[in-house]
Design goal:
- The complex is a heterodimer of chains A (about 80) and B (about 110).
- With about 80 residues, chain A is mainly beta.
- Chain A has no helices and six strands.
- Chain A has one domain: SoxY domain (Immunoglobulin-like, Sandwich), CATH 2.60.40.
- In chain A, the strands form two sheets. Chain A has a four-stranded antiparallel β-sheet with strand order 3-2-5-6, with no helix packed on it. In chain A, strands 1-4 form a two-stranded antiparallel ribbon.
- In chain A, about 20% of the residues are buried.
- Chain B is an all-beta fold and about 110 residues long.
- Chain B has one domain: Sandwich (Immunoglobulin-like), CATH 2.60.40.
- Chain B is elongated, with a radius of gyration of 16 Å.
- Chain B starts with a strand and ends with a strand.
- The chains are: A mainly beta (about 80), B mainly beta (about 110).
- Chains A and B meet through strand 3 and strand 4 of A and strand 4 and strand 5 of B.
- Strand 4 of chain A pairs antiparallel with strand 5 of chain B.
Chain lengths: ~80, ~110
Protein backbone atom coordinates (compact mmCIF):
# COMPACT_ATOMS: atom_id res chain seq x y z
CA UNK A 1 0.00 0.00 0.00
CA UNK A 2 1.11 3.51 -0.68
CA UNK A 3 0.93 6.45 1.71
CA UNK A 4 1.51 10.02 0.70
CA UNK A 5 1.09 13.44 2.21
CA UNK A 6 1.22 16.82 0.52
CA UNK A 7 1.09 20.35 1.88
CA UNK A 8 0.82 23.21 2.31
CA UNK A 9 1.05 23.18 6.08
CA UNK A 10 1.39 25.84 8.74
CA UNK A 11 4.74 27.62 8.59
CA UNK A 12 7.37 25.76 10.56
CA UNK A 13 5.28 22.61 10.72
CA UNK A 14 7.02 19.51 9.44
CA UNK A 15 6.05 15.88 9.31
CA UNK A 16 7.41 13.78 12.16
CA UNK A 17 5.72 10.41 11.82
CA UNK A 18 2.97 8.48 10.08
CA UNK A 19 1.18 5.81 12.09
CA UNK A 20 -0.61 3.08 10.19
CA UNK A 21 -3.47 1.21 11.86
CA UNK A 22 -5.65 -1.75 11.02
CA UNK A 23 -9.16 -2.29 12.42
CA UNK A 24 -9.08 -6.07 12.49
CA UNK A 25 -5.47 -7.21 12.80
CA UNK A 26 -4.48 -8.87 16.10
CA UNK A 27 -1.85 -6.14 16.41
CA UNK A 28 -3.67 -2.95 15.30
CA UNK A 29 -0.58 -0.82 14.79
CA UNK A 30 0.90 -2.03 11.52
CA UNK A 31 3.89 0.30 11.39
CA UNK A 32 5.19 3.72 12.35
CA UNK A 33 7.18 5.63 9.75
CA UNK A 34 9.38 8.28 11.32
CA UNK A 35 11.11 11.21 9.65
CA UNK A 36 13.99 12.42 11.86
CA UNK A 37 14.80 15.16 9.35
CA UNK A 38 11.96 17.06 7.63
CA UNK A 39 11.16 15.26 4.36
CA UNK A 40 10.77 17.12 1.06
CA UNK A 41 8.62 14.44 -0.51
CA UNK A 42 6.41 12.17 1.55
CA UNK A 43 5.57 8.95 -0.17
CA UNK A 44 6.01 5.56 1.46
CA UNK A 45 5.10 2.20 0.07
CA UNK A 46 5.17 -1.18 1.75
CA UNK A 47 3.35 -4.50 1.78
CA UNK A 48 1.12 -5.33 4.72
CA UNK A 49 -0.84 -8.23 6.16
CA UNK A 50 -4.55 -7.62 6.70
CA UNK A 51 -6.97 -9.91 8.55
CA UNK A 52 -9.85 -9.45 6.15
CA UNK A 53 -11.47 -6.53 4.33
CA UNK A 54 -11.46 -3.46 6.52
CA UNK A 55 -10.64 0.20 6.86
CA UNK A 56 -6.96 1.06 7.22
CA UNK A 57 -6.19 4.30 9.01
CA UNK A 58 -3.14 6.51 8.59
CA UNK A 59 -2.38 9.28 11.06
CA UNK A 60 0.30 11.86 10.30
CA UNK A 61 1.85 13.61 13.30
CA UNK A 62 3.27 17.08 12.63
CA UNK A 63 5.96 18.87 14.62
CA UNK A 64 3.46 21.45 15.94
CA UNK A 65 1.23 18.75 17.41
CA UNK A 66 -1.36 18.75 14.62
CA UNK A 67 -2.58 15.35 13.49
CA UNK A 68 -3.94 14.55 10.05
CA UNK A 69 -5.80 11.32 9.54
CA UNK A 70 -7.32 9.47 6.65
CA UNK A 71 -8.91 6.06 6.26
CA UNK A 72 -9.43 3.94 3.21
CA UNK A 73 -11.39 0.76 2.73
CA UNK A 74 -9.34 -2.21 1.55
CA UNK A 75 -11.03 -5.29 0.20
CA UNK A 76 -9.34 -8.60 1.04
CA UNK A 77 -10.88 -11.33 -1.08
CA UNK A 78 -8.69 -14.23 0.06
CA UNK A 79 -6.95 -14.04 3.42
CA UNK A 80 -3.32 -15.04 3.02
CA UNK A 81 -2.45 -14.99 6.67
CA UNK A 82 -4.99 -16.57 8.99
CA UNK A 83 -4.20 -16.80 12.66
CA UNK A 84 -4.69 -20.16 14.33
CA UNK A 85 -7.67 -19.18 16.50
CA UNK B 1 18.96 -13.36 7.22
CA UNK B 2 21.20 -10.54 6.21
CA UNK B 3 19.99 -10.65 2.64
CA UNK B 4 18.64 -7.49 1.09
CA UNK B 5 18.22 -5.84 -2.27
CA UNK B 6 18.47 -2.10 -2.65
CA UNK B 7 17.66 0.12 -5.63
CA UNK B 8 18.82 3.74 -5.67
CA UNK B 9 18.92 5.99 -8.78
CA UNK B 10 22.41 6.19 -10.32
CA UNK B 11 22.45 10.00 -10.31
CA UNK B 12 20.50 12.53 -8.28
CA UNK B 13 20.06 16.29 -8.41
CA UNK B 14 20.99 18.28 -5.34
CA UNK B 15 17.99 19.33 -3.27
CA UNK B 16 15.61 16.98 -5.01
CA UNK B 17 14.08 13.86 -3.48
CA UNK B 18 15.09 10.50 -4.88
CA UNK B 19 13.41 7.13 -4.57
CA UNK B 20 14.92 4.38 -2.43
CA UNK B 21 13.61 0.84 -2.65
CA UNK B 22 14.68 -2.01 -0.40
CA UNK B 23 13.54 -5.56 0.17
CA UNK B 24 14.86 -7.58 3.07
CA UNK B 25 14.70 -11.35 3.21
CA UNK B 26 12.95 -12.11 6.50
CA UNK B 27 10.13 -14.49 7.45
CA UNK B 28 8.40 -11.88 9.69
CA UNK B 29 6.94 -14.64 11.89
CA UNK B 30 3.75 -13.31 13.44
CA UNK B 31 3.77 -15.56 16.51
CA UNK B 32 0.27 -16.79 15.61
CA UNK B 33 1.33 -19.69 13.41
CA UNK B 34 1.91 -23.25 14.59
CA UNK B 35 4.24 -25.89 13.18
CA UNK B 36 3.12 -29.39 12.09
CA UNK B 37 3.17 -30.68 15.69
CA UNK B 38 0.88 -27.85 16.83
CA UNK B 39 3.61 -25.98 18.68
CA UNK B 40 3.48 -22.20 18.37
CA UNK B 41 6.22 -20.69 16.23
CA UNK B 42 7.65 -17.79 18.26
CA UNK B 43 7.14 -14.28 16.96
CA UNK B 44 10.15 -12.90 15.15
CA UNK B 45 9.66 -9.77 13.08
CA UNK B 46 11.99 -6.95 12.14
CA UNK B 47 11.02 -4.43 14.79
CA UNK B 48 13.11 -1.48 13.74
CA UNK B 49 14.53 -0.33 10.41
CA UNK B 50 16.71 2.74 10.04
CA UNK B 51 18.04 4.51 6.97
CA UNK B 52 20.86 7.00 7.50
CA UNK B 53 22.24 9.38 4.90
CA UNK B 54 25.92 10.20 5.51
CA UNK B 55 25.53 9.14 9.12
CA UNK B 56 22.36 11.13 9.83
CA UNK B 57 19.08 9.20 10.27
CA UNK B 58 16.54 10.25 7.63
CA UNK B 59 13.89 7.54 7.77
CA UNK B 60 13.04 4.92 10.35
CA UNK B 61 10.24 2.40 10.55
CA UNK B 62 8.88 0.61 13.60
CA UNK B 63 7.29 -2.56 12.34
CA UNK B 64 5.03 -5.22 13.77
CA UNK B 65 3.65 -8.52 12.51
CA UNK B 66 1.34 -6.53 10.21
CA UNK B 67 4.19 -6.08 7.75
CA UNK B 68 4.33 -8.87 5.18
CA UNK B 69 7.15 -11.38 4.91
CA UNK B 70 10.25 -10.16 3.09
CA UNK B 71 9.49 -6.51 3.87
CA UNK B 72 9.51 -4.11 0.96
CA UNK B 73 9.90 -0.39 1.51
CA UNK B 74 9.84 2.47 -0.95
CA UNK B 75 10.49 5.97 0.31
CA UNK B 76 12.13 9.26 -0.66
CA UNK B 77 15.32 10.85 0.56
CA UNK B 78 16.39 14.41 -0.29
CA UNK B 79 19.73 14.55 -2.15
CA UNK B 80 22.30 16.76 -0.44
CA UNK B 81 25.74 15.55 -1.36
CA UNK B 82 27.31 12.36 -2.66
CA UNK B 83 27.85 9.75 0.00
CA UNK B 84 26.30 6.61 1.38
CA UNK B 85 22.94 5.41 2.58
CA UNK B 86 23.28 3.06 5.53
CA UNK B 87 20.45 0.69 6.29
CA UNK B 88 20.19 -1.13 9.60
CA UNK B 89 17.53 -3.38 11.02
CA UNK B 90 17.04 -5.56 14.07
CA UNK B 91 14.52 -8.34 14.68
CA UNK B 92 12.84 -9.70 17.81
CA UNK B 93 15.53 -12.38 18.11
CA UNK B 94 18.08 -9.59 18.48
CA UNK B 95 19.66 -10.31 15.12
CA UNK B 96 21.05 -7.14 13.58
CA UNK B 97 21.93 -6.62 9.94
CA UNK B 98 23.18 -3.76 7.82
CA UNK B 99 23.37 -2.84 4.16
CA UNK B 100 24.84 0.07 2.26
CA UNK B 101 24.23 1.91 -0.98
CA UNK B 102 26.20 4.75 -2.50
CA UNK B 103 24.51 7.96 -3.60
CA UNK B 104 25.82 10.16 -6.39
CA UNK B 105 24.68 13.77 -6.39
CA UNK B 106 25.39 16.00 -9.39
Amino acid sequence: MRLSLSGPFEAGSTLQAIHLFSEKNPVPEIAVFEFPSPPVKVEVETRVRLAGAQYVVAVAAMSDGVLYADATEILVTIAGCLDAS
Amino acid sequence: MADSRIIVPPENRRGEPFEVRITIRHAMETGYRTDVSGKAIPRNVIMRFTCSYNGEPVFTVRMGPGIAANPYLRFFVTARESGTLDFEWIDDAGERATAQASVKVV
